[in-house]
Design brief:
5-stranded parallel beta sheet, homodimer, Rossmann fold
C-alpha cells in the first residue's frame, strides 16, 4: 500500500509531536519542516534529527514530492497557510483550531471546495480508545436511541505557556481552542452537521485580563441535547493534564467515557463504562488500537474524508466561532 | 429538647416513608394520617400500625396537638392543602414539588408570609452524605472560588407508576418534579436565590404521549454556571434507581459527588471524590450522619428555616416552573 510524504509547517504547539508520531507510526514519511526559531523549532529538529529543515512555508510548498503538509503554527495563521498550501496542490493536515475567525473559515472552506484538496483537522480529544469503543457501541444500538451527550474537559494551564496562548487574537479563545473538541464530538456522535448552537458562555476567573479560563456550551440536534464545559483549571494534584469525560445517554443505557484518568481507579487510563439492561461493564481501552492516522493517510491516497469529514470539521469550527462570539458578547453583562 | 407532633396528609408518593422515618428518627411523633384509599393509604397504615387514621385533612387540621403536617399527596394538590394548613396554624413539611404552577406558588408564598408558618420542602436528593460533605468542603475553601455545578440525575421509570404520575397537570412535568432537586442544589451551593434561568429543554423519547422523559436546564449565578440533566431512563442493569452525580468545579479543585452508586466501584454508595492541589481523595459517605430532619424539627421549634430556607425553596420552584414552561413552549419546534 503506497504511503505519503508530508512536511511540517509551524511547530508552535506541542500537538505537532502527536501528529507527526501518528503519521510516521501509520507509515507516512516526514520529508521536511519549517518553524519559527522561538516557537518549538529547535526542539522539533532535535526530536526528528534526520528531518530536512526548510527555510519557510514557500520552500515546502514548492517541493513536488511533498503530498501533504501538517500545520501546527499559530492558530491565527493556520487558515492562511492552509489556503496557500491547497492552492499549491498540497493536502492539509491541521491541528485544531484550523481557523479562528468566520472570515478565515470561509476562506478555507471556499479554497477546499475549489481545489478539491484534503483539509483534515486533528481534534486530538477524539483520539481515545474509550470514545472509539463508545461510538461503535452506540452505532450498534447498544444504548438505544440517543438522548444526550454531556462532556467535561478541564485542562491544565501550567506555567510555561507562550505569550500567544493568552491572546485571543492569536489562539481564538477558549471555545475555539478547546470547545471545538467537544463540538466535533457532538457532531461525530449525532452524525449531524446541521446541529445548532443553543447557548454558550465564557468567564474569566484566573485574573489574567482578556484570558477566559472557563466556558460552556449547549448544542442540539433535533431533540438530542449536547452540553459541554471546558476550563483551564485542572488542579495540580491530578497526575494528568485533565479529567476528561463524556456521558452519552441513550434510551436503553449509557456510555460513561473517561478519556484520561478514572479518579476512582487512578491506576487506569482511557476507560469506558457501559451501563445497560445487562448491568455495568467496564472496558479498559488504553491499549485499544486507534486507526485515525491510517485512515487519514488513506483519505489522502483515496481522496476520501473518512478520518474526519470536511463537513463535520467545517461545521465544528463554524459553531465554535459562533459560540465564542456569542459568549464574548454576553460576558460584560455577568462580569 | 422538646420535639413535635406531626400528622400526614396524603400518601400518594412513597417519599412519605422517607420523610416520616426521618422525622421519627429525629424524635418527632407521628400523631395521625389521612390518605386516599387508592393512593398508598393501606400500605401506610400497615407500615405505621399504631398511627391514628383520620377521615380527612380537615380532621387533622382541627387537632390542636398537631404542630406540623407532612404533605405527600398529589403534587397538584399540595399547595392548596399547604395554604389551608398554614391558615389553620400548622407548620408544613412538604415533599417536592410543593407547587406545580406559578399561581399555586404565589399562593403558598403569600400565605406563608401572612401567617409566618414554616413551609419546609424536602428535596430528597439533597440528602446525601457525599453532597453534605462536598458543600462543607466548598464552604471551607477547599476548591477555591466556585466556577460551575453540573448535575446528572437519571431516574428509573419502572412499570408500576400510578396514572397521575404521567399527567403533567397532576405531577407538574419533569422539570418541576425532578428538575427541582437540581435547582435547589444549585441555589444551595451558590447560596444565591437571585440565580437565573438561562435555558431549559424537555423531550419525549418513551412514546407515552404528553409524558416528557428527558430534560436539561442551564442556570447562572453571576459568572457561575449551573447545568443539570434529568431523565426517566435508568437502565434495568443498574442495581439502583439512578446514577446521580454532581460535579462541583472550583478554581483550585473539584468535588465529584456520586450520590448513589459509583459505577467504577459498585460495592460502594454515596461517595465523594475531592481532587485538588494535594491529589485525589476518596470519601465514603454512606454512613455519614445527616442532620436534615433534626434541623427541620428545630426550625419548627425555633421558628427558623435552617434545614432549607423559605427563600431558596420558593425560588427553586419559581425557576422549576419557569423552566418547565419555557421548555414546553419550545418542544413543538424540535419534536
Amino acid at each position: 500500500m503506497p504511503s505519503i510524504d508530508f512536511a511540517v509547517i509551524g511547530t508552535h504547539h506541542a500537538h505537532v509531536y502527536d501528529i507527526v508520531d501518528g503519521l510516521i507510526g501509520a507509515g507516512a514519511r516526514l520529508a521536511g519542516f519549517c518553524g519559527d526559531e522561538d516557537a518549538g523549532r529547535a526542539a522539533f529538529a532535535e526530536r526528528y534529527a534526520g528531518a530536512r529543515r526548510e527555510k519557510d512555508a514557500a520552500s515546502i510548498l514548492g517541493r513536488k514530492g511533498v503530498q501533504a503538509v501538517v500545520l501546527c503554527g499559530l492558530p491565527s495563521e493556520r487558515a492562511g497557510v492552509a489556503c496557500r498550501a491547497m492552492r499549491a496542490g498540497k493536502d492539509v493536515i491541521v491541528d485544531k483550531p484550523p481557523a479562528i475567525t468566520a472570515g478565515q473559515l470561509a476562506d478555507v472552506r471556499r479554497v477546499q471546495g475549489e481545489t478539491g484538496r484534503r483539509f483534515l483537522v486533528v481534534f486530538g480529544e477524539l483520539l481515545s480508545g474509550a470514545f472509539d469503543r463508545a461510538l461503535k457501541l452506540y452505532r450498534e444500538g447498544r444504548i438505544g436511541e440517543l438522548v444526550s451527550v454531556a462532556g467535561m474537559a478541564p485542562h491544565r494551564l501550567g506555567e510555561a505557556r507562550p505569550e500567544w496562548f493568552y491572546d485571543p487574537a492569536r489562539n481564538g479563545g477558549i471555545m475555539v481552542d478547546i470547545g471545538c473538541h467537544q463540538i466535533a464530538q457532538f457532531l461525530t456522535i449525532t452524525a449531524d452537521p446541521a446541529a445548532e448552537l443553543v447557548d454558550a458562555s465564557i468567564a474569566c476567573f484566573g485574573g489574567r485580563d482578556g484570558f477566559f479560563d472557563s466556558g460552556d456550551i449547549i448544542l442540539r440536534s433535533g431533540r438530542v441535547r449536547g452540553y459541554a464545559r471546558v476550563d483551564w483549571m485542572t488542579p495540580d494534584g491530578l497526575g494528568e493534564w485533565g479529567d476528561v469525560r463524556t456521558m452519552i445517554t441513550g434510551t436503553k443505557g449509557y456510555l460513561d467515557v473517561r478519556k484520561t484518568v478514572d479518579v476512582g481507579r487512578p491506576e487506569s487510563w482511557d476507560v469506558l463504562y457501559v451501563v445497560d439492561s445487562r448491568g455495568i461493564e467496564r472496558m479498559e481501552c488504553e491499549h485499544a488500537p486507534l486507526d485515525f492516522y491510517s485512515k487519514l493517510i488513506a483519505d489522502i491516497r483515496d481522496r476520501t474524508d473518512r478520518s474526519i469529514s470536511h463537513e463535520i470539521s467545517f461545521r465544528t469550527m463554524e459553531l465554535a466561532i459562533q459560540a465564542q462570539e456569542l459568549a464574548e458578547s454576553r460576558w460584560p453583562c455577568v462580569r
